[in-house]
Amino acid sequence: MLDLNLPIDTVEVKDLSVEDFKKKYFKPQIPVILKGLAFEQPAGDKWQLDWFKETMGDVTVDLYDNRKKHHEYSTTTKPDVQMSFSEYIDIIKKDENTPLRMFLFNLYKHNKDLKKDFANPKYITGLMKGMGFMFFGGKDTDVRLHYDIDNSNVILTQFGGKKRVVLFAPEYSDLLYRMPFNTHSNIDVFNASHEEYPALKYVKGYDMILEHGDAIFMPSGYWHYNTYLSGGMGVSYRMMPSDLPGLFKGIMNVGPMMALDKMLNSLVGGPWIRYKARLMDRRMEKAVKKYSKNDTNSGNPVKSSTPKREAIRA
Prior knowledge:
Layout: E1 9-12, H1 18-26, E2 32-35, H2 43-46, H3 49-56, E3 60-65, E4 81-84, H4 85-93, E5 100-105, H5 107-110, H6 114-117, E6 132-137, E7 142-146, E8 153-159, E9 163-168, E10 205-210, E11 215-218, E12 223-228, E13 232-239, H7 244-267, H8 270-291
Parallel strand pairs: 1-2
Antiparallel strand pairs: 2-11, 3-4, 3-5, 5-6, 6-13, 7-12, 8-11, 8-13, 9-10, 9-12
Helix pairs in contact: 3-4
Protein backbone atom coordinates (compact mmCIF):
# COMPACT_ATOMS: atom_id res chain seq x y z
CA MET A 1 0.00 0.00 0.00
CA LEU A 2 1.06 3.57 -0.60
CA ASP A 3 2.37 5.69 2.27
CA LEU A 4 -0.16 8.54 2.55
CA ASN A 5 0.90 9.93 5.91
CA LEU A 6 2.63 13.19 5.04
CA PRO A 7 1.28 16.05 7.18
CA ILE A 8 -0.48 18.93 5.48
CA ASP A 9 -1.31 22.36 6.91
CA THR A 10 -4.96 23.25 7.44
CA VAL A 11 -5.59 26.99 7.65
CA GLU A 12 -8.75 29.05 8.17
CA VAL A 13 -8.90 31.51 5.27
CA LYS A 14 -9.89 34.33 7.60
CA ASP A 15 -6.49 33.90 9.24
CA LEU A 16 -4.45 33.67 6.03
CA SER A 17 -3.68 36.85 4.10
CA VAL A 18 -2.83 36.83 0.41
CA GLU A 19 0.73 37.84 1.29
CA ASP A 20 1.14 34.98 3.77
CA PHE A 21 -0.35 32.50 1.29
CA LYS A 22 2.21 33.50 -1.33
CA LYS A 23 5.09 33.43 1.17
CA LYS A 24 4.25 30.18 2.98
CA TYR A 25 2.65 28.09 0.23
CA PHE A 26 2.72 29.45 -3.32
CA LYS A 27 6.38 30.44 -3.59
CA PRO A 28 7.76 27.30 -1.90
CA GLN A 29 5.12 25.19 -3.73
CA ILE A 30 3.63 23.54 -0.64
CA PRO A 31 0.02 22.25 -0.62
CA VAL A 32 -2.40 23.52 2.00
CA ILE A 33 -6.07 23.01 2.94
CA LEU A 34 -7.96 26.32 2.94
CA LYS A 35 -10.87 25.91 5.34
CA GLY A 36 -14.03 27.82 4.50
CA LEU A 37 -12.84 29.44 1.29
CA ALA A 38 -16.27 29.17 -0.35
CA PHE A 39 -17.97 30.95 2.55
CA GLU A 40 -16.15 34.18 1.74
CA GLN A 41 -18.62 34.48 -1.15
CA PRO A 42 -22.38 33.81 -1.61
CA ALA A 43 -21.77 30.41 -3.20
CA GLY A 44 -20.77 28.92 0.14
CA ASP A 45 -24.35 29.11 1.44
CA LYS A 46 -26.07 28.90 -1.93
CA TRP A 47 -24.53 26.26 -4.15
CA GLN A 48 -26.07 22.82 -3.64
CA LEU A 49 -27.07 20.20 -6.21
CA ASP A 50 -30.78 21.01 -5.95
CA TRP A 51 -30.09 24.69 -6.55
CA PHE A 52 -28.27 23.89 -9.81
CA LYS A 53 -31.06 21.56 -10.86
CA GLU A 54 -33.67 24.27 -10.31
CA THR A 55 -31.73 27.08 -12.00
CA MET A 56 -29.79 25.32 -14.78
CA GLY A 57 -31.44 21.91 -15.16
CA ASP A 58 -32.10 22.36 -18.88
CA VAL A 59 -28.43 22.87 -19.80
CA THR A 60 -26.93 19.99 -21.82
CA VAL A 61 -23.75 18.73 -20.17
CA ASP A 62 -20.84 16.59 -21.39
CA LEU A 63 -20.08 13.49 -19.33
CA TYR A 64 -17.17 11.05 -19.19
CA ASP A 65 -17.56 7.36 -18.41
CA ASN A 66 -14.87 5.81 -16.19
CA ARG A 67 -15.66 2.39 -17.66
CA LYS A 68 -14.36 3.33 -21.11
CA LYS A 69 -10.98 1.69 -21.68
CA HIS A 70 -9.78 4.26 -24.20
CA HIS A 71 -9.34 6.77 -21.36
CA GLU A 72 -6.54 4.61 -19.93
CA TYR A 73 -4.21 5.23 -22.85
CA SER A 74 -4.54 8.90 -23.64
CA THR A 75 -5.63 12.31 -22.40
CA THR A 76 -9.41 12.60 -22.28
CA THR A 77 -10.81 15.37 -24.48
CA LYS A 78 -14.10 14.13 -25.94
CA PRO A 79 -17.19 13.32 -23.85
CA ASP A 80 -18.73 9.84 -23.89
CA VAL A 81 -22.35 10.93 -23.40
CA GLN A 82 -24.54 14.01 -23.11
CA MET A 83 -27.68 14.59 -21.09
CA SER A 84 -29.52 17.39 -19.38
CA PHE A 85 -27.96 18.77 -16.23
CA SER A 86 -31.18 17.90 -14.39
CA GLU A 87 -30.92 14.22 -15.37
CA TYR A 88 -27.30 14.05 -14.33
CA ILE A 89 -27.93 15.68 -10.94
CA ASP A 90 -30.64 13.10 -10.27
CA ILE A 91 -28.05 10.39 -10.90
CA ILE A 92 -25.34 11.76 -8.62
CA LYS A 93 -27.78 12.55 -5.82
CA LYS A 94 -28.43 8.83 -5.37
CA ASP A 95 -26.57 7.00 -2.63
CA GLU A 96 -24.88 4.70 -5.13
CA ASN A 97 -21.85 4.60 -7.38
CA THR A 98 -21.91 6.06 -10.88
CA PRO A 99 -19.06 5.95 -13.42
CA LEU A 100 -20.25 9.21 -15.01
CA ARG A 101 -18.41 12.39 -14.15
CA MET A 102 -18.28 15.90 -15.46
CA PHE A 103 -15.04 17.84 -15.60
CA LEU A 104 -13.61 21.10 -16.90
CA PHE A 105 -17.14 22.30 -17.60
CA ASN A 106 -17.64 26.03 -17.97
CA LEU A 107 -21.03 26.60 -16.36
CA TYR A 108 -20.21 30.30 -16.19
CA LYS A 109 -20.70 30.39 -19.94
CA HIS A 110 -24.30 29.28 -19.49
CA ASN A 111 -25.05 31.52 -16.51
CA LYS A 112 -22.85 34.58 -16.12
CA ASP A 113 -24.48 35.41 -12.81
CA LEU A 114 -22.60 32.49 -11.26
CA LYS A 115 -19.54 34.71 -11.26
CA LYS A 116 -21.26 36.91 -8.72
CA ASP A 117 -21.67 33.90 -6.42
CA PHE A 118 -18.12 32.58 -6.64
CA ALA A 119 -15.73 34.92 -8.36
CA ASN A 120 -11.99 34.52 -8.53
CA PRO A 121 -10.67 33.56 -5.03
CA LYS A 122 -8.46 36.17 -3.44
CA TYR A 123 -5.37 33.97 -3.62
CA ILE A 124 -5.54 33.57 -7.40
CA THR A 125 -3.57 36.12 -9.44
CA GLY A 126 -1.98 36.38 -12.86
CA LEU A 127 -3.04 35.87 -16.47
CA MET A 128 -5.38 32.95 -15.71
CA LYS A 129 -7.24 34.90 -13.06
CA GLY A 130 -11.00 34.46 -13.39
CA MET A 131 -10.86 31.19 -15.37
CA GLY A 132 -13.06 28.84 -13.34
CA PHE A 133 -14.12 25.30 -14.23
CA MET A 134 -16.52 22.89 -12.57
CA PHE A 135 -16.35 19.17 -11.83
CA PHE A 136 -19.23 16.91 -10.73
CA GLY A 137 -19.42 13.31 -9.57
CA GLY A 138 -21.52 10.89 -7.54
CA LYS A 139 -20.80 8.66 -4.58
CA ASP A 140 -17.52 6.72 -4.99
CA THR A 141 -16.86 8.23 -8.43
CA ASP A 142 -13.11 8.58 -8.71
CA VAL A 143 -10.85 10.67 -10.91
CA ARG A 144 -7.73 8.83 -12.01
CA LEU A 145 -4.31 9.77 -10.72
CA HIS A 146 -2.96 12.67 -12.76
CA TYR A 147 -1.44 16.12 -12.71
CA ASP A 148 -3.11 18.93 -14.63
CA ILE A 149 -2.02 18.92 -18.24
CA ASP A 150 -1.26 22.66 -18.34
CA ASN A 151 0.99 22.23 -15.27
CA SER A 152 -0.84 25.06 -13.53
CA ASN A 153 -1.22 25.83 -9.84
CA VAL A 154 -4.78 25.01 -8.79
CA ILE A 155 -7.14 25.95 -5.97
CA LEU A 156 -9.95 23.39 -5.96
CA THR A 157 -13.00 24.22 -3.83
CA GLN A 158 -15.54 21.61 -2.75
CA PHE A 159 -19.32 22.17 -2.78
CA GLY A 160 -22.19 19.96 -1.66
CA GLY A 161 -20.73 16.78 -0.21
CA LYS A 162 -17.30 15.45 0.70
CA LYS A 163 -14.32 14.56 -1.45
CA ARG A 164 -11.21 12.56 -0.65
CA VAL A 165 -8.05 13.98 -2.19
CA VAL A 166 -4.67 12.25 -2.37
CA LEU A 167 -1.62 14.29 -3.44
CA PHE A 168 1.90 13.39 -4.53
CA ALA A 169 4.79 15.74 -5.27
CA PRO A 170 5.96 15.98 -8.92
CA GLU A 171 9.33 14.46 -7.98
CA TYR A 172 7.56 11.08 -7.87
CA SER A 173 6.29 11.13 -11.47
CA ASP A 174 8.29 8.17 -12.77
CA LEU A 175 7.73 6.17 -9.58
CA LEU A 176 3.97 6.63 -10.05
CA TYR A 177 4.04 4.81 -13.39
CA ARG A 178 3.21 7.89 -15.44
CA MET A 179 1.93 7.04 -18.91
CA PRO A 180 4.48 8.48 -21.40
CA PHE A 181 3.29 11.40 -23.54
CA ASN A 182 0.48 11.88 -21.01
CA THR A 183 0.01 13.29 -17.51
CA HIS A 184 -1.82 10.40 -15.85
CA SER A 185 -1.20 7.00 -14.29
CA ASN A 186 -3.44 3.95 -14.33
CA ILE A 187 -2.52 2.62 -10.87
CA ASP A 188 -5.29 2.11 -8.31
CA VAL A 189 -4.07 4.39 -5.51
CA PHE A 190 -5.83 2.55 -2.67
CA ASN A 191 -5.24 -1.01 -3.85
CA ALA A 192 -1.89 -1.01 -5.67
CA SER A 193 0.53 -3.48 -4.09
CA HIS A 194 4.31 -3.20 -3.85
CA GLU A 195 4.54 -6.65 -5.43
CA GLU A 196 2.81 -5.47 -8.58
CA TYR A 197 4.21 -1.92 -8.49
CA PRO A 198 7.56 -2.07 -6.64
CA ALA A 199 8.42 1.59 -7.25
CA LEU A 200 5.54 2.71 -5.05
CA LYS A 201 7.44 1.81 -1.87
CA TYR A 202 9.53 4.95 -2.41
CA VAL A 203 6.49 7.24 -2.73
CA LYS A 204 5.01 9.36 0.06
CA GLY A 205 1.77 11.28 -0.26
CA TYR A 206 -0.91 13.38 1.45
CA ASP A 207 -4.42 12.13 2.18
CA MET A 208 -7.30 14.46 3.15
CA ILE A 209 -11.04 14.96 3.19
CA LEU A 210 -12.56 18.18 1.84
CA GLU A 211 -15.96 19.19 3.18
CA HIS A 212 -18.42 21.67 1.71
CA GLY A 213 -16.69 25.04 1.50
CA ASP A 214 -13.13 23.76 1.88
CA ALA A 215 -10.43 24.16 -0.75
CA ILE A 216 -7.06 22.62 -1.48
CA PHE A 217 -4.10 24.42 -3.02
CA MET A 218 -2.31 22.03 -5.38
CA PRO A 219 1.05 23.41 -6.58
CA SER A 220 2.18 23.08 -10.17
CA GLY A 221 2.74 19.49 -11.25
CA TYR A 222 1.28 17.90 -8.12
CA TRP A 223 -0.36 14.55 -8.75
CA HIS A 224 -3.89 14.11 -7.39
CA TYR A 225 -6.39 11.30 -7.11
CA ASN A 226 -9.91 12.42 -6.18
CA THR A 227 -12.83 10.36 -4.92
CA TYR A 228 -16.33 11.78 -4.41
CA LEU A 229 -17.54 10.40 -1.07
CA SER A 230 -21.01 11.70 -1.89
CA GLY A 231 -22.59 13.51 -4.81
CA GLY A 232 -21.05 16.94 -5.17
CA MET A 233 -18.96 19.31 -7.19
CA GLY A 234 -15.66 21.12 -7.23
CA VAL A 235 -14.63 24.43 -8.75
CA SER A 236 -11.05 25.07 -9.81
CA TYR A 237 -9.27 28.34 -10.40
CA ARG A 238 -5.76 28.33 -11.73
CA MET A 239 -2.45 30.18 -11.84
CA MET A 240 0.33 29.68 -14.34
CA PRO A 241 3.56 27.93 -13.25
CA SER A 242 5.86 30.29 -11.41
CA ASP A 243 9.00 29.44 -13.44
CA LEU A 244 9.87 29.16 -17.11
CA PRO A 245 10.61 25.39 -17.11
CA GLY A 246 7.19 24.74 -15.59
CA LEU A 247 5.50 27.03 -18.12
CA PHE A 248 7.33 25.37 -21.02
CA LYS A 249 6.33 21.95 -19.72
CA GLY A 250 2.67 22.96 -19.64
CA ILE A 251 2.82 24.36 -23.17
CA MET A 252 4.43 21.17 -24.46
CA ASN A 253 1.86 19.01 -22.68
CA VAL A 254 -1.14 20.86 -24.08
CA GLY A 255 0.35 21.29 -27.55
CA PRO A 256 2.71 18.88 -29.34
CA MET A 257 2.79 16.04 -26.79
CA MET A 258 -0.96 15.58 -26.63
CA ALA A 259 -1.36 15.99 -30.39
CA LEU A 260 1.39 13.47 -31.14
CA ASP A 261 -0.01 10.92 -28.71
CA LYS A 262 -3.55 11.16 -30.05
CA MET A 263 -2.34 10.90 -33.64
CA LEU A 264 -0.24 7.78 -32.96
CA ASN A 265 -2.98 6.21 -30.84
CA SER A 266 -5.28 6.61 -33.82
CA LEU A 267 -2.84 5.58 -36.56
CA VAL A 268 -0.81 2.88 -34.83
CA GLY A 269 -2.94 1.77 -31.91
CA GLY A 270 -1.68 -1.30 -30.03
CA PRO A 271 2.03 -1.11 -30.95
CA TRP A 272 2.15 2.53 -29.81
CA ILE A 273 0.44 1.70 -26.51
CA ARG A 274 2.82 -1.22 -25.91
CA TYR A 275 5.80 1.03 -26.68
CA LYS A 276 4.58 3.52 -24.09
CA ALA A 277 4.23 0.71 -21.53
CA ARG A 278 7.82 -0.41 -22.13
CA LEU A 279 9.06 3.18 -21.90
CA MET A 280 7.14 3.64 -18.65
CA ASP A 281 8.82 0.57 -17.17
CA ARG A 282 12.29 1.72 -18.21
CA ARG A 283 11.74 5.11 -16.61
CA MET A 284 10.42 3.48 -13.47
CA GLU A 285 13.41 1.15 -13.18
CA LYS A 286 15.83 4.02 -13.64
CA ALA A 287 14.03 6.08 -11.02
CA VAL A 288 14.04 3.20 -8.52
CA LYS A 289 17.81 2.87 -8.83
CA LYS A 290 18.23 6.54 -7.95
CA TYR A 291 15.65 6.68 -5.17
CA SER A 292 16.88 3.51 -3.52
CA LYS A 293 20.13 5.34 -2.76
CA ASN A 294 18.31 8.10 -0.88
CA ASP A 295 16.91 8.21 2.61
CA THR A 296 13.21 7.41 2.26
CA ASN A 297 12.44 7.58 5.97
CA SER A 298 12.08 11.36 6.17
CA GLY A 299 8.74 13.10 5.99
CA ASN A 300 9.65 14.95 2.82
CA PRO A 301 9.51 13.89 -0.84
CA VAL A 302 12.75 12.17 -1.86
CA LYS A 303 14.83 14.38 -4.12
CA SER A 304 16.88 12.95 -6.94
CA SER A 305 20.61 13.68 -6.79
CA THR A 306 20.48 14.56 -10.48
CA PRO A 307 18.39 17.22 -12.23
CA LYS A 308 14.73 16.31 -12.42
CA ARG A 309 13.69 14.87 -15.77
CA GLU A 310 11.06 16.63 -17.81
CA ALA A 311 8.10 14.28 -17.45
CA ILE A 312 6.70 15.14 -20.87
CA ARG A 313 9.68 13.98 -22.88
CA ALA A 314 10.02 10.48 -24.25
